[in-house]
Amino acid sequence: MCPFLALPYGESVKKMAYHKVNADQRTQGQYLDSDDLQATALELEWDMEKELEEPGFDHFRLDGAVQQDLGNSQSPDLDLEPIQPSASPKGRFQRLQEDPEYISHYTRQSPKSHRCSFFQILKVFCAALILFIFGIVIGYYAGKKCPSPPASPEPNNPHIYHEILKEIKAENIQQIYRDVLQSPREDDVDAAMRILLQWTSHGLEDVRLVNYSVLLDLPGSSSNTITLKNSGECFYPDGQQCSKVTRTLHSQDLLYSYAAYSAKGTLEAELVDIQYGTIEDLIRIQTTTNVTKKIALLKLGQSPLLYKLSLLEDAGFGGVLLYVDPCDLPKTTDLAEKAFMVSLNSGGDPSTPGYASIDGSYRQNRLNLTTLLVQPISAVLAKKLTSIPENRIQKDKCVPLQLSSTDKKIINLSIQSVTTYKTISNVIGYLKGSVFPDRYVIIGSHHSSLNTYGGQEWASSTAIITAFIQALMLKVKRGWRTDRTIVFCSWGGTSFGNIGSYEWAEDLKRVLQRNVVAYVSLHNPVRGNSTLHPIASPSLQQLAAESQNINCVEKMKCPGSNVSSVQTQGDSDYFINHLGVPAMQFSYEDINTSENSSFVSEALFPMHATRTEELDPSFKLHENIAKFSGYATLQIANEPVLPFNALDIALEVQNSLRVFLGEEVDASQLLAVASRLRDTAELFQSDEMRPANDPRERAPIRVRMLNDVLQSLEKSFLVQQAPPGLYRNILYRLDERTSQFSVLLEALEHCKLHQSNETIQATLSEVLNSISSAQVYFKAGLDVFETTLAGKK
User: Fold this and answer.
1) Model's pTM, two decimal places?
2) Calpha distance 426→666 (Å, rounded)
3) Reported confidence tier of residue 370, pLDDT bands at 50, 70, 90
């Protein structure tokens, strides 16, 4: 209560009481004439009008009443008539008029309190309006000066993604593709520099060239040769007879028909047909033939090349002639007459295994990565070596090539190549995220300085990623930005064993282990035109399936391809097998004509300028790959909760173990741990992921904790060591035909070859530990959430 208002109220009460007492005294003691009574009434009325005109009186009335009540409670013995809180001074004056002894002969105008109250209210209203407008002005300018919270200017609306993707057009990709091929390519650095300038011209803000000096195994000055000892005929790898004319016409293709990092030298030995080099093939051959220092005739396919070569090396073979059976090639291709290139490098710079090739690094002397002399040859030459009789050739059916058991051939194999240190370059571009700049979504293509080997394939890859950058930066220039950082990469040295991606990742390993969220691969995006083949980690399979629907939103029916988690080629290798990062890849392929066609893509055939445009003349397939990959990248980079599915991982684990129920393996413990993993994943999915995806229940700190858990889901499934060519990440199967864990499948095969259970027991233990570690990781994540929630309560 304002203290200055108490005094007028007290004086008025005294005046009122004074006049009333005088009137009573006159009535009791002597006669009061009418003039005195009227004067008294007028004085009292004048005093009350003065009180009514006191500013703030109405407000004071309630406060004064409360104060008086408190005063009365402190003096309970006083026998005074209390002033009612609801009685106004005007009301008390009206009660005087109701007194039967009260007489008034005068009439006068009503008090001016109503008009004063109206003007007072008008003043208050105007003052409040002015203050309100003034507050809006202050808030506006304060908002302009204060930094806005780190969030995207626009909501995470799929409509935004479609606005970006609609800028990706087939004709733009085709133009970029042709520009890439028309540019002269002298070395890897030149190709990388042109890509850097192109990305920068589209507005990508932070683009860097990262160089590494690595050990490459390049072709020699002349082509490798295969000579039949019996007839003395000499052949080049493509099947043509040795001559200067042939070598001149096809010099580039002949030189690059080799196996990088193979042993060098000359070997003369008997040719032994081992078909696909499976465990069964080796057991069959070794029961009848001494294979020591012999030359194996090996088909590419069924299982990874490095795995098969390791088996041949252990068996004692000295050399390998490698070919692709025409029955395993798509009918739409004409590759039977062509030799090819393969790399025997499992990944990275061979001279710095496991660490980056930076200045000052120790260089190991690893000129050869195998003791075998390995030479790829064409199917035409393989037919000449096998000498297929005419009666075995069927027009309506493809007959696999096979060397007659009675036909003994002695081969002279001459291999030469040059190992030298070269500079390879990676182009790394960053689009910094607005909310989580320390979380990376990597999308990778690659470039090559080889004229024909992989030239078409890398040009497609480069055109697609450049078109996506161009479309994305148009939206960024208008103020929009993804929540997480997108890292655009064009890798060098991919043809020699994913060298560029390995070296960069080894160089930044600690940062990437903490920051990388996912990897989207654009490796060899259009290798056919028959079917779409999406590959994704189990946690990303649902997103991969959803990404296929972006082109058919308005259509009644939207067919989609099945998404699988199988091994694939390309620069995603390090991120999958060493960092445990969820990965995804879309590509168009031809329909496989044989169940043995898996891993045929390890062969790098020469492809010339017209091949890609024959496969996709309108470049519509390129546009689809760009949109599928772009949509997935935007979803991962911009959704508040990472679009990963934890339960799909648990289901994949259970499905991979069920097939061992009929094997001679006790998988009961594995199945029990897998069941617990599924229960924990279901609880994690329902209790944490579903509420976090609801904006009404979403708490930023819990979303960040949840994303940290989702980001590291697959790291538990990395085994310490896997056989050559097999993934360390056990969530990926060998191919579409197999459903078991590849390391367990290989261990079972190993038992057949060596008659020992030691390998299978060790592998079972390692897989068990991986699944158990994943279950503990899920459980720990749930416990952290429960503890945090309990602490807040």
Assistant:
1) 0.79
2) 47
3) very high
